[in-house]
Automatic annotation (TrEMBL):
Name of protein: 6-phosphogluconolactonase
Role according to the record: Hydrolysis of 6-phosphogluconolactone to 6-phosphogluconate.
Keywords on record: Hydrolase
E.C. numbers: 3.1.1.31
Family: Belongs to the glucosamine/galactosamine-6-phosphate isomerase family. 6-phosphogluconolactonase subfamily.
Ranges for domain Glucosamine/galactosamine-6-phosphate isomerase: 15-233
Organism taxonomic ancestry: Bacteria, Pseudomonadati, Pseudomonadota, Alphaproteobacteria, Hyphomicrobiales
GO MF: 6-phosphogluconolactonase activity
Pfam families: Glucosamine_iso
GO biological process: carbohydrate metabolic process; pentose-phosphate shunt
PANTHER family linked to this entry: 6-PHOSPHOGLUCONOLACTONASE
Species annotation: Methyloceanibacter superfactus
Reactions that this protein is recorded to catalyse: 6-phospho-D-glucono-1,5-lactone + H2O = 6-phospho-D-gluconate + H(+)
Known pathway: Carbohydrate degradation; pentose phosphate pathway; D-ribulose 5-phosphate from D-glucose 6-phosphate (oxidative stage): step 2/3
């Protein structure tokens, strides 16, 4: 086994085993903390089976639902009822049927606002959760951030070549319509203010990009995720390839 350029690698037999281990990890992390835990969710297909396990026994009863705030790492600029909504997916997978206090769930408000306003409001919400307007070194904003990896090396909605990659001040930025539909995304400063970032990467289609990033290729948005704490790559054998 080689050493990844950053983070530690956990390789599971298949996507199902990855989802089980990932859900256990989330539950243990939240359960092992005494205060509140802020967890950032990713969209995409890979986390869905993990989310479903959070909402099902035996994990459902072990989760300290009243001590967790759920935020989104990125979101499409659509209402939760839209099939493309990341929040809608998380709500259907688990948040809609677990005993989570409504005030602890933080979807992106897209109703009657512009894309930029939605980003500004989401940033204001994060600042309220953080209790300050400026990120302080050594005091993370997010306790656990779940991220995915696109075949082009994007993560959250930090897409290759987009101006959002240069954002160093805002915590949340709009991603105007272009190669994808309108979205908002947490920026590097916000994502990197995490204690733990887990990348969930499954399937053969991700093998080439994962190999490049683990090898230290810095050409991709996901290559620049460097949280205050640690990165853990949760992968299956198909994605891990020679790294397994
Ligand atoms: O909202 C999203 O779509 C994302 O947050 C995005 O960054 C996703 O995690 C990757 O595109 C991987 O998606 P898959 O897990 O579907 O491959």
């Amino acid at each position: 086994m080689y050493a990844p350029a950053f983070g530690t690698l956990r390789v599971y037999e298949n996507a199902t085993a990855l989802a089980e281990a990932g859900a256990e990890y989330v539950c243990d992390l939240a359960g092992g903390r005494s205060g509140r835990t802020i967890i950032a969710l990713s969209g995409g297909n890979t986390p869905k089976p993990l989310y479903e396990r959070l909402g099902a026994e035996p994990i459902k009863t072990r989760m300290p639902w009243d001590r967790i705030d759920w935020v989104l790492g990125d979101e499409r600029f659509v209402p939760p009822s839209d099939p493309a909504s990341n929040f809608g997916m998380a709500r259907a997978a688990f948040l809609g049927h677990v005993p989570v206090p409504p005030a602890s769930v933080h979807p992106v408000d897209t109703d009657g606002v512009t894309l930029d306003e939605a980003a500004i409001r989401y940033e204001a919400m994060l600042k309220r959760l953080y209790g300050a307007d400026t990120l302080e070194a050594g005091r993370p904003l997010l306790d656990l951030t779940l991220l995915g990896l696109g075949e082009d090396g994007h993560t959250a909605s930090l897409l290759p070549g987009e101006p959002v990659l240069q954002e160093r001040t805002r915590w949340v930025a709009p991603v105007p319509r272009g190669r994808v539909e309108e979205r908002i995304t947490l920026t590097y400063p916000a994502l990197n203010a995490s204690t733990v970032i887990t990348f969930l990467v499954a399937g053969e289609g991700k093998r080439a990009i994962l190999d490049k990033i683990l090898s230290g290729d810095t050409d991709f948005p996901a290559s620049h995720i460097r949280p205050q704490g640690e990165v853990i790559w949760f992968t299956d054998r198909a994605a891990a390839g020679r790294w397994a």
